Amino acid sequence: MAYPGVYELDVVGYSHPSLDKNKVAPFPSLDELQAITMRCVTQSSVQQSISSNINATHLPDFINTVKALPKDQMPPACAADLIAVA
pLDDT digits over 13-68, tens only? Predict the structure, then answer.
């Protein structure tokens, strides 16, 4: 059963005619952003700092905070995923 606004998949797959590979990107939602944040950041103080900006009006602050984090606090691949979803 499907409900409006609820999706079974957390990713969207697409292909580009000029590429031989399919690309997969996370479905952009605040819930997905929160889930990726919890998986990527292990330090609770950093999780709290980032999570406080996960809302529609603070997404630019969220992106700036993620970009400013050192690599030892968040792997670059996780940062890229978070920025893409935000």
Answer: 444 454 445 555 556 889 889 988 988 888 888 888 888 889 989 999 999 999 99
Cβ proximity of 69 and 46 under 8 Å: yes
| CA separation, residue 1 to residues 7, 10, 27, 32, 55 (Å) | 10, 17, 19, 21, 28
Is residue 35 within a helix (H) or strand (E), and if so which, with residue range?
helix 30-40
- Contact yes or no for 11/28 (Cβ under 8 A): no
Q: Residue 65's closest CA among 47, 38, 39?
A: 47
Query: How remote is the C-alpha of 38 from its chain's centroid?
Result: 10
pTM over 0.70: no
User: Running DSSP on this structure, what letter comes out for residue 13?
Assistant: E
